[in-house]
Amino acid sequence: MRRIFPHPVLMFGLALLWLILQQQISAGQIVLGLLIGFGASFITARLELDGLIVRRPWVLLTLIVVVIIDIARSNAAVAWLAMSPRGPQSAGFMHVPLTTRNRTILAFLAMIITATPGTVWVEFDEETGDLLVHVLDLIDVDEWVDIITNRYERRLIEIFE
Amino acid sequence: MSDLPLWGSIAFAILVIGGATLTLLGCIGMLRFPSFYARIHAPTLGTSFGMVGIVLASALYFTLIQGRPVLHEILLVVFIIVTTPVTLMLLSRAALHRDRSEGDETVPLPNLHPKDPPPTPGE
Amino acid sequence: MTLAIVEYSLFLAQILLGIAMLCTVWRMVSGPRAQDRVLALDAFYVVGMLMLVTVSIRIGTSIFFEVALVIGMLGFVSTVALAKFLMRGEVIE
């Protein structure tokens, strides 16, 4: 089963994407979408990606809500900085010690940090677990470290490990 | 072409103008911020809520006009959310690499591991 | 009446997006360094994509949606290629 359908979630996701793109639901389109999803998931099996297993869906939901609220808040903060006559006064780099080495968790963490205006993931050292982040309003370093490790990383570890 | 309900048009106006304003503020920030690393934060305004506002407005308009759910615009949101972190991470790493190889003092140095040879200045 | 609200808000949004495109072009021309120009080009692609979405609302067809998707993909790929070039091409390894 696993060899015939290497990535079932990816296959159905691609089929759904195909249906949305075609803007119609008919038997032919569903079969075509499933065929495309099957072919694509078979090709991605060659990449030997780690499987994605969500262990605690409700933590994932709370994380999504938390991230959306954070993105809204930092949108307002960066928009304010762009309008204010003085501009950003305290932009700077910052080191965050991470505990996880799981590639899935790191990928999601990178997406969250970079999608949030005001923080950009710059560099990650896999040996020491040291993450370099650039922050636009770096006033309190400990607060940012607390946000990244406790608010995002801890929840992601709960979800995927 | 049928008319829109009033709430629909007002919601549309708020979404589309709000999204465009956020995008414009991001681009103004990119024009005004003093250093490259500060500027790299600015376009994320346009790629997060600015883009979401305009795309939601488009989905709302076509849904109300055509009388059936038109959701394919959501694909744009998914696509941008997935791709923006990749481009910004690559760009910031490239800029860091260039600054380090030029010996810029303001950027943090790479972590040195015992097995790595120490960097020779001026190379 | 309600279509007039849509019309005017769309007009205003397109003006705002046009100014945003001018800002990115200004940054692309003025530099000062190559990474600033690449960043501005990436932002230009995104704003251009949003502009196409508003154009498709104005014309009333969703044909422009595919155009916007293709522009987004081209922007992504070209920015990644340019960033790779900045990292590998110009700097002597």
From TrEMBL, chain A:
A GO MF term: monoatomic cation transmembrane transporter activity
Recorded GO CC terms: plasma membrane
Location in or out of the cell: Cell membrane
Top-level taxon: Bacteria
Pfam families xref list: MNHE (PF01899)
Keywords for the protein's UniProt record, in alphabetical order: Cell membrane, Membrane, Transmembrane, Transmembrane helix
Topology in membrane: Multi-pass membrane protein
Residue intervals passing through the bilayer: 57-83, 104-122
Entries under PANTHER family matching the protein: NA(+)/H(+) ANTIPORTER SUBUNIT E1, NA(+)_H(+) ANTIPORTER SUBUNIT E1
Entry's family note: Belongs to the CPA3 antiporters (TC 2.A.63) subunit E family.
NCBIfam families on file: PRK08965.1-4
Protein name: Na+/H+ antiporter subunit E
Phylogenetic lineage: Bacteria, Pseudomonadati, Pseudomonadota, Alphaproteobacteria, Hyphomicrobiales
TrEMBL record, chain B:
InterPro entries: PhaG_MnhG_YufB
The keyword Transmembrane belongs to this UniProt entry's keyword annotation: yes
The keyword Acyltransferase appears for this protein: no
Keyword terms, alphabetized: Membrane, Transmembrane, Transmembrane helix
Region span, Disordered: 100-123
Alphabetized Pfam families for the sequence: PhaG_MnhG_YufB
Protein name per the record: Cation:proton antiporter
Organism: Pelagibacterium lacus
TrEMBL record, chain C:
Keywords: Antiport, Cell membrane, Ion transport, Membrane, Transmembrane, Transmembrane helix, Transport
GO cellular component, one term: plasma membrane
Localization per Swiss-Prot or TrEMBL: Cell membrane
Keyword Ion transport among UniProt keywords: yes
Pfam families: MrpF_PhaF
InterPro entries reported for this sequence: MrpF/PhaF-like
Membrane topology, record value: Multi-pass membrane protein
Recorded GO MF terms: sodium:proton antiporter activity
TM segment ranges: 6-26, 38-57, 63-87
Alphabetized PANTHER family for the sequence: NA(+)/H(+) ANTIPORTER SUBUNIT F1, NA(+)_H(+) ANTIPORTER SUBUNIT F
Protein family (similarity comment): Belongs to the CPA3 antiporters (TC 2.A.63) subunit F family.
Protein name according to UniProt: K+/H+ antiporter subunit F
Organism expressing this protein natively: Pelagibacterium lacus
